[in-house]
Automatic annotation (TrEMBL):
Organism name: Cereibacter sphaeroides (strain ATCC 17023 / DSM 158 / JCM 6121 / CCUG 31486 / LMG 2827 / NBRC 12203 / NCIMB 8253 / ATH 2.4.1.)
Protein's name in the database: DUF2383 domain-containing protein
Entry superkingdom: Bacteria
Domain DUF2383: 14-120
UniProt xrefs under Gene3D superfamilies: 1.20.1260.10
Length: 153
């Protein structure tokens, strides 16, 4: 693990990792936007919480990337389209309800891993602090939704 840098621009590898995190966040955001549209009424608030968290985090990550002189991605990767398609197909076959929690947990692991990768590249201290906070927010939401699904709420 590279040490935490002080304020200032990150090394190129650290900025690349930040861009990868932003891209993964955009990709899952696309899936949650479709999920909110197609979710069963009882599950819609959960999908909306994920959508809203990823929207805020994607915007903040884009601001960080722009601050360091790179143009942030705005639409996501091919995975954005795949995520939308998967959610749309699932809504036609099985519906989008609480039974999708395990798939959400699996998909979100890619974002958590991207947080870990970005943190492991020695970001500036202010970026490190914010990334840790953002990762905690996501992990807490994942924990809450998994616990709710396990108890049937």
């Amino acid at each position: 693990m590279v040490g935490i840098r002080s304020y200032g621009a990150p090394e190129p590898a650290a900025l690349d990792a930040l861009e990868t995190l932003h891209l993964r966040s955009l990709d899952v955001l696309a899936g949650f936007e479709t999920m909110v549209e197609r979710a069963e009424p009882a599950f819609r608030p959960t999908a909306a919480r994920f959508r809203d968290l990823h929207r805020v985090q994607s915007e903040e990550l884009a601001e960080m990337i722009a601050r360091f002189g790179r143009e942030p991605e705005s639409k996501g990767s091919l995975m954005s389209t795949v995520n939308r398609a998967v959610v749309s197909l699932r809504s036609l076959v099985n519906g989008v309800d609480g039974n999708i929690i395990d798939q959400i947990q699996d998909g979100e692991q890619h974002v958590v891993t991207a947080f870990d990768d970005a943190l492991g590249e020695g970001q500036p201290i202010d970026v490190t602090a914010r990334l840790r906070s953002m990762r905690r927010e996501l992990c807490l939401l994942l924990f809450e939704t998994q616990a709710a699904a396990a108890t049937g709420r």
